[in-house]
From TrEMBL:
Subunit structure: NDH-1 is composed of 14 different subunits. Subunits NuoA, H, J, K, L, M, N constitute the membrane sector of the complex.
Name assigned to this protein: NADH-quinone oxidoreductase subunit A
GO molecular function, one term: quinone binding
The UniProt record lists the keyword Acyltransferase: no
GO cellular component: NADH dehydrogenase complex; plasma membrane
């Protein structure tokens, strides 16, 4: 196998790197840049970072993040199912129906428990 087969991939990678660099440079040159103390301060986890490191903080931020990841991954299973629907036929359709029913029941459960309420 010769390296000529990989030449289009190399061109694609180089084009992506150059385009990304050009767009970031244009944004840096034309965009507003007015740093102040608030913008340059570290920000993490949805709460103010200016207090004692041993303070108690609300874990709802992490709960929302975990639930987002959970439901995001579950919805990612819909893409391969949609692509392969012709091949898997009715058994695959019924299996995905059961999966979606479990998905909806779980979502309604966390909604009713108030896990999605921020305040």
């Amino acid at each position: 196998m010769t390296l000529e087969a990989y030449f289009p991939v190399l061109i694609f990678i180089l084009f992506g790197v150059v385009l990304g660099g050009v767009l970031m440079s244009i944004g840096r040159i034309l965009g507003p840049y007015k740093p102040d103390a608030a913008k340059l301060s570290p920000y993490e986890c949805g709460f103010e970072a200016f207090e004692d490191a041993r303070m108690k903080f609300d874990v709802r931020y992490y709960l929302i993040a975990i639930l987002f990841i959970l439901f995001d991954l579950e919805t990612a299973f819909l893409f391969p199912w949609g692509v392969a629907l012709k091949d898997i036929g009715w058994p695959g359709f019924i299996a995905m129906g059961v999966f979606l029913l479990e998905f909806i029941v779980g979502f309604v459960y966390i909604w009713k428990k108030g896990a999605l309420d921020w305040e």
